[in-house]
Design a protein that fits this description.
There is one protein chain. With 139 residues, the protein is an alpha+beta fold. The protein has one domain: Lipocalin (Beta Barrel), CATH 2.40.128. The protein is 25% helix and 36% strand. It contains three helices and eight strands. A hairpin with a 4-residue loop joins strand 2 and strand 3. The protein is globular. The chain starts with a helix and ends with a strand.
C-alpha cells in the first residue's frame, strides 16, 4: 500500500510540474501582428519592406503560425513561409520559401515567446538595438 501511495503522489507531482512549464503550442498557433513601440520600430518595418521589394503604404509585419507547424511571415504584403518549432520560450522559424528576403531558404530566426503566451519578440542581438514585438490578434 505504501508503494502505491508513493507512485500516486509522484505522478501527481509530475503533472503539477508539467503544468507549470512555459507557453504552449496551442497559444502560439494563430495570427500575430507587429506592434510598434516607437518610430525606430516603424522604420525597421519600412526597411524590411524595401528589402523584400514591397512598395506602397503598408509596411506592417505579421506572422501566421499554423497548427501543422508551418508559418507565413508577411512584410508589406510580400509573404515568406517555412516551418516553426517551440522549445520552452524560444520559437525557431526555418524559412523554406524566403521570397526575396535577405534570409535565404534554410535560414532560421529565433523569437522569444512570453510565458503568458501573448507576445513574440524578435531581437537580433549582437549589438543591434533593433527589435520587433508581435501580439496575437485572434485570442
Amino acid at each position: 500500500m505504501r508503494i502505491w501511495s508513493t507512485v500516486v503522489l509522484s505522478s501527481l507531482a509530475l503533472l503539477v510540474i508539467a503544468g507549470c512549464g512555459g507557453p504552449s503550442e496551442k497559444k502560439l498557433v494563430g495570427f500575430w501582428v507587429q506592434e510598434y513601440e516607437d518610430e525606430q520600430q516603424q522604420s525597421i518595418a519600412d526597411v524590411a519592406a524595401q528589402i523584400q521589394g514591397s512598395s506602397g503604404a503598408s509596411t506592417s509585419m505579421s506572422i501566421d503560425m499554423k497548427k501543422d507547424h508551418t508559418f507565413e511571415f508577411a512584410v508589406g504584403g510580400v509573404a515568406s513561409s517555412g516551418t516553426w518549432k517551440l522549445d520552452g520560450e524560444t520559437v525557431t522559424l526555418t524559412y523554406t520559401d524566403a521570397k526575396g528576403m535577405v534570409l535565404g531558404d534554410g535560414d532560421t530566426v529565433e523569437l522569444a515567446f512570453s510565458a503568458n503566451g501573448k507576445e513574440l519578440t524578435f531581437n537580433p542581438g549582437k549589438g543591434s538595438s533593433a527589435s520587433a514585438l508581435f501580439v496575437k490578434t485572434d485570442d
